[in-house]
Specification:
Layout: E1 2-8, H1 20-30, E2 34-37, H2 51-60, E3 67-74, H3 76-88, E4 92-96, H4 111-120, H5 128-131, E5 138-144, H6 149-161, E6 165-170, H7 180-190
Parallel strand pairs: 1-2, 1-3, 3-4, 4-5, 5-6
Helix pairs in contact: 1-7, 2-3
Length: about 190
């Protein structure tokens, strides 16, 4: 059976700017999984719905017959992957540092974060508590133990609310997927596929 993995970068990131995405692609190759980088058009010229990112990803997403399909996303890429799950229906997802921009998160975010979200994505209000019980895909969560409390809260809540999920803590890792400490955590998860 063939295996492929889609890699969705974080907001404003790409495999050319952050070498970690190419290292992750190599980790997939070592496991016999063909990596496919998704180049996202982040930073809207005007306010828009987060649905545009989901549509961008799904337009590039293919699930060939007799193929195991994995999706790895970091930060906004993880949020995009999570919100795409019901349509994509991959074999498993690796959500790295899932972004804390759900309806339940907004009141707990620093004011500058919530203002930025509301300014750039005024039509995007997603309830994690409503979406999580509907997830049918196996979810692997990864987060660094040196990330901010906002991401830590979102990831721990995800672990509790998503029935088929596991959590890997990358020791010494901040919110930077290209850092060695973070990549160690990602490699552990890819080794489980």
């Amino acid at each position: 059976m063939d295996k492929i993995a889609y890699i969705i970068p974080g907001y404003g990131e790409s495999r050319t700017k952050q070498p970690g995405y190419n290292k992750i692609a190599s980790m997939f190759r070592e496991r016999g999984i063909k990596p496919i980088h998704i180049e996202m058009r982040w930073r809207p010229a005007k306010p828009e719905s987060f649905q545009n990112y989901i549509k961008q990803f799904l337009k590039k997403y293919k699930k060939p017959k007799n193929t195991k399909v994995y999706v790895l996303g970091f930060s906004f890429g993880a949020l995009t992957a999570f919100l795409s799950e019901s349509k994509a229906k991959p074999t498993a997802m690796i959500l790295c540092s899932l972004s804390p921009y759900f309806k339940e998160d907004i009141p707990k975010l620093p004011k500058s974060w919530s203002r930025w979200w509301n300014k750039n994505y005024p039509d995007s209000e997603y309830s994690f508590n409503q979406l999580a019980p509907r997830i049918k895909t196996k979810i692997f969560l990864v987060t660094g133990d040196k990330e901010g409390p906002e991401v830590a809260r979102r990831v721990r809540s995800a672990k509790k609310l998503i029935k088929e999920s596991s959590l890997t803590i990358a020791k010494g890792a901040k919110h930077r997927i290209s850092r060695k400490e973070y990549l160690v955590g990602v490699k552990k998860v890819i080794g489980k596929l």
